[in-house]
Write a structure and sequence with these properties.
The complex is a heterotrimer of chains A (135), B (252) and C (295).
Chain A: H1 12-22, H2 34-38, H3 49-58, H4 61-66, H5 69-72, H6 78-82, H7 89-101, H8 115-120, H9 123-133
Chain B: E1 17-22, E2 25-30, H1 35-41, E3 61-65, E4 73-76, E5 86-88, H2 110-116, H3 128-132, H4 139-147, H5 151-157, H6 166-170, H7 177-192, H8 197-207, H9 212-220, H10 223-231
Parallel strand pairs in B: 1-5
Antiparallel strand pairs in B: 1-2, 3-4, 3-5
Helix pairs in contact in B: 4-5, 4-7, 5-7
Chain C: E1 2-6, H1 16-29, E2 32-35, H2 54-68, E3 73-76, H3 79-94, H4 96-105, E4 117-120, H5 121-129, H6 131-136, E5 146-149, H7 171-178, E6 182-183, H8 197-200, H9 202-218, E7 223-226, H10 229-237, H11 239-246, E8 254-256, H12 257-264, H13 269-272, H14 279-287
Helix pairs in contact in C: 1-12, 2-3
The chains are: A mainly alpha (135), B alpha+beta (252), C alpha/beta (295).
Amino acid sequence: MPFFISKSDSDEKLRQKVKEISGENFQKCYQCGTCSGSCPMADHMTVVPRRLMALLQLGNRAALDEANTPWVCASCHACMVRCPRSIDIPKVMEAVRQLKIRDRLDRIEPGKIDKKQIADMPQIAMVSGFRKLTS
Amino acid sequence: MSTVSEDLPTMEIKAKLIPIYVMGKKYEVPETLTIMKAIEYAGYKYIRGCGCRGGVCGACSTVYRKPGDHKIYTGLACQTVVEPDMYLTQIPFYPALRATYNFHEMTGTAEEVFALYPELFRCVACNNCTKVCPMDVEVMDYISALKRGDLKAAAEISFDCIQCGLCASRCMGELPQYHIAQLARRLNGAYLTPRAEHLKTMVANIETGRYDAGLNGLKEMDVAQLKKVYQEREMEPATAGEDWTPKDKSYL
Amino acid sequence: MKVAYYPGCTLKTKAKNLETSALACLDALGVEWQELERWNCCGAVYSLADDDLIHLVAPVRDLIRAKQQGHEMVLTLCSMCYNTLARANELMKHDEEKRKTINLFMDEEPDYFGEVKVVHFLDFLRDVYGWENFKAKVVNPLNGMKVAPYYGCTLLRPKEAGIDRFDNPSIFQDCMTALGAEAINFPMSTQCCGTYQVLGNPEAALKVSFDILTNAKAHGAEALVLACPLCDYNLGKRQPEMKEKYELAGDVPLFYFTQLMALALGVKPEDCRFELNREVSLEFLRDKNLVKATA
């Protein structure tokens, strides 16, 4: 799939914002792919973690917006403990989520969750789910 | 006959006047007045945000600030006395939606509350709600109790709530705390607190006509007979012990 | 030794079996415990945004309570609560600027500097109580029962919170071995079950949980041992869905580690709360003659 890189596609504000919110320098990533290999949810992502880091480095907002990566991520930290560049990848994922969440674009609607499911699930499911996926 | 133009008696105001600000405008008001009375003294007429004037209806919850102080202060306008340089504004009632439910189909489980108010789990324990409550209700504590499924504790802690809505206005998680608490109190009262067994027995007795003969007898008496029966009635002596019973045991 | 017990919201309702068995174990071990007063929900996940401090307020408030009530150690059972409290504690210990801001914001509480220690029951046993002392209290060894300790993610990662090394941990196996069981190692024992994605991407969470169960069984596990109620939901309560979607062959028994501990320590059967586990777990115990068959 051809992927075009151009200066006009690079959103510097986006990169700055993600750096600020995560406190991490994702420029360090040298695309080794260990994160994607460790990620239990990678099969369900449209863009694997390694590729997401590349998109971030390029500041490609359009591709980032389309990727479901941060919304499938379970914050399990498997990637973080193995990253040879010591990048705190979960923090970067959180920052990408926050870009949408802080604009009040929630990923799930608490009011629309099946009532029976709410009654069955342990409270920590709702507490953690709402923290990660809603504003 | 007096005419309208005659001088009406005027009240001499003995209290010291202090400045307060209402929506940015400065007024000098007697320092002994409550916020509500002071605003009316300044010439405003309340058509909203005013109710019982007795501190229990929750209509007049007010937010104000004091100069040189970053804090947000709250209180009921009908109960809080004005202070110098108090900065007041008119704040409309904060919207908070109440879930609709069929109370009679519920059984009083925590899961029923979770299903109706899933936003309960958005609480971040910031404590803004407790800080703002004009009735000193520990709002964060009852939300915490609800999250762990303890409806009884939530009902007890939220007892003094007057549904003023200030907690919801400051909530980071966008919960309607007082609506959830009301549901907890309703469920607790209807389904969780123990039933009074003696009440059940009494109602059954009445319905089976146990007291009909006695009541009908009284209805048929004339005033003189009634007076006699009343004056000759047997009363429990003031010094009676636990085991005292009347001579006529037919209504026990 | 005295510990403050921090339950977390779920242990009072959906994971009563974890709580009751754990507290019975503490009693059997002679550990003095007291439930933290006025505790609040810790938030279940640690906030990963660098500029976000409000989500730290909840766990820090619990740590302040522990300090106020004169406790030196807070003991948790739920892995998610452990992770959140431990990481918040580390931040308050080491990040001066954020600590100042949080203490300033929480002006209705005393200041906190990371004075309390946060432990999970497992690292409490290893580091404070000691395995030898623990083994000495076992009265009903579990007769070589083949159990696979499932760590999940929050007990081991990140390093600052991990109770053991993330790549080759042994703490959970050591606990099971001390009880007389045979601890089965399987590669996916430290892989995440999907946690909160049960809400966001339930299909993905179902598949990763199914993979974990399959992997455990393939390595000879007869049952899985857990430390987290959300893992129990994803791996256990969702087994019927796995049967439908992925043809899970047979239900897999699951237990909380404290329930097996309670059994081995000779705690009263009713305090192990096995009736709150799934039927398959009860059957498993009956087959092993570890509980009486019900009429």
